[in-house]
Amino acid sequence: TKNCSSTIGYAIGGIAGRGAVKYLTVENTGDITISSNFAAVPTTTTGEGETAETKVNYTMHPIFIGGIYGYGSTGANDGMVNSGDITVSGTHSYTSGALSISGIYCRGSNSDTNVMKNCHNTGAISVSTIQESTSASTEIAGIVTYQIRGTQQDSTNNGPITFTGKTGHLQIAGISTDDAAKVKFINCDNLEKGVITVNGDTGKDKDHYAYVGGILFANEANITLQDCDNKAAINVTNTNATKKSFIYVGGVVSRLTTALTFTNCTNSGAINLLSAVKYVGGCVGQVSLEGVADISSWTGLSNSGDITYTKEAPGEVTYIGGVV
Based on the number of CB atoms within 10 Å of its own CB, is 169 exposed (0-12), middle (13-18) or buried (19 or more)? Predict the structure, then answer.
């Protein structure tokens, strides 16, 4: 049991849970299976003795699960490889905090100058957790979730990524679900076997969203994508949608709200929408023009993947674009 007043809740990894070390040519081949029910405990107590009073505060810091490591690194890592499958289930009963699951690592570099390169995941990631609170979130990616700074380079995911649980907020992508400022992704590909499947309860309304991206979940902090390709199919079904879900789907990036620089990024994977969504694009699901730089500066952004939309929500409008 971990006291949730610490800076993290749990950190679990195939090689290390937590540790500020450099990883050079490190490989995990073992499977990681987690079926625990995670629950936060009351952490605030006032008074002493018979007058002591504990506030029921079911908050929890993030839970990190990574094929190589969960939390913490000096950065500049080179050659991290995971082929073990990651399976996470259980019921989670905390009101805040994120469940972060990735093929390689979660909370990563803390320096803008660090380069994380040659990271490769071929292990399957399957998440079926039930989060009882609609304010909690789930983040799933083939390479990195939660936090990255600097540059992620020459990395691939070639393992399927599947979510079949329940969560208030979902962020899922082939490469990364982080959007820290000034991060660069160079030559990072989600390959053919990196099929992303969402078949769960999520994205119910404007306050409970779901972002699904072939490379990156969303951009809110000036990121650069260069020579990044998604070649895998994306399949989306919301199992509890009574009206159009607030689900954003993009073959490369699901949503942009600030400037993102694209250079030679493509999607060739099919996008199959089996229930109602809000925005979908062959490369970018949705763009907020109020905060985004001139999109005419984008170069080499293209889509050759088919988009199939089979279910419209009555009285709702869905926005679909071949590229954006």
Answer: buried
Distance CA(9)–CA(133), nearest Å, equals 17
Closest-CA residue to 174 (of 121, 124, 219, 215): 215
Q: What is the pLDDT of residues 225-253, one digit of tens each?
A: 999 999 999 999 888 755 567 889 999 99
Structure tokens at 46: 């006032």
Mean pLDDT of 309-316: 70
- Is the CB of residue 189 less than 8 Å from the CB of residue 173? no
Closest CA to 144 of 85, 185, 111: 185
Burial of 202 (0-12, 13-18, 19+ CB in 10 A): buried
Extract the tokens encoding 204: 């119910």
Rounded-to-integer distance, Cα 269 and Cα 231, Å:
5
Task: Measure Cα distances from 114 to 183, 256, 270 in Å.
Answer: 10, 24, 34
Confidence of residue 266 (pLDDT cuts 50, 70, 90): very high
What's the rounded Cα separation, in Å, for the pair 195 and 160? 5
pLDDT digits (tens, 9 = 90+) for 205-219: 777 788 999 999 877
Do residues 186 and 104 make contact, with C-beta atoms less than 8 angstroms apart? Answer: no
The residue to which tokens 């992508």 are assigned: 173
- Does the predicted TM-score (pTM) go above 0.85? yes
What is the Cα gyration radius of the chain?
A: 19
* CA-angle at 131, arms to 126 and 132, nearest 5°: 155
**Pairwise CA distance, residues 295 & 234, whole Å:** 24
CB 180 within 8 A of CB 216: no
Eight-class DSSP state of 225: E
Which amino acid makes up residue 302?
Answer: S
On whether the CB atoms of residues 229 and 194 are closer than 8 A, the answer is no
